[in-house]
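Title: Comparing notes on inverse folding

I've been comparing how different people in this forum approach sequence design from structure. To keep things fair, I'm posting one structure and asking everyone to reply with a full sequence. Here's the target:
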């Protein structure tokens, strides 16, 4: 019985394994969209970050300048707050189209830390739980990856292009 419990636990627990750079970017968007304020959803997202990672965003409503979330505890709080305040998160890497073909572009370069840097253009949608208003916003994300984990993530949302979705 104990062996079965641990086998099932391993099957559903996010692993601390390294991911390739395209995998980690895709998993980040997938896990970000699943944020609902629960410990499970937050732990899934955190499994992609290095223990000493830094996540940077634009200013909050009562702040001037960027916001830095340094380390797992700060990133955990950010992820919990997002899952608590917003619903129906739908962020994805944007598609680029030409000649009747569409692809999601991942711009990759080797960083001086010995791992890749990946930049993507994205589009996001979310509903504010308090007002039930839905918004869409374009943006760009810059992932610095080391050892298969995110060591730094800079997330730009073009809030000047924020659009309310009319139902």
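Reply #1:
Here's my take.
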């Amino acid at each position: 019985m104990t062996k079965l419990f641990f086998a099932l636990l391993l099957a559903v627990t996010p692993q601390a394994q390294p991911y390739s750079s395209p995998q980690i970017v895709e998993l980040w968007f997938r896990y970000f969209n699943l944020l609902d304020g629960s410990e499970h959803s937050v732990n899934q997202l955190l499994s992609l970050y290095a223990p000493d990672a830094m996540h940077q965003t634009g200013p909050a409503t009562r702040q001037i300048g960027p916001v830095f979330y340094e380390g797992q505890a700060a990133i955990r709080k950010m992820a919990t707050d997002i899952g608590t305040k917003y619903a129906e998160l739908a962020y994805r890497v944007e598609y680029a189209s030409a000649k009747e073909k569409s692809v999601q572009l991942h711009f990759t370069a080797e960083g001086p830390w010995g791992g890749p840097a990946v930049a993507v253009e994205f589009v996001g949608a979310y509903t504010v739980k308090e007002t039930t208003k839905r918004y869409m916003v374009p943006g760009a994300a810059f992932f610095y990856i080391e050892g298969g984990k995110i060591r730094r993530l800079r997330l730009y949302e073009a809030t000047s292009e924020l659009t309310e979705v009319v139902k």
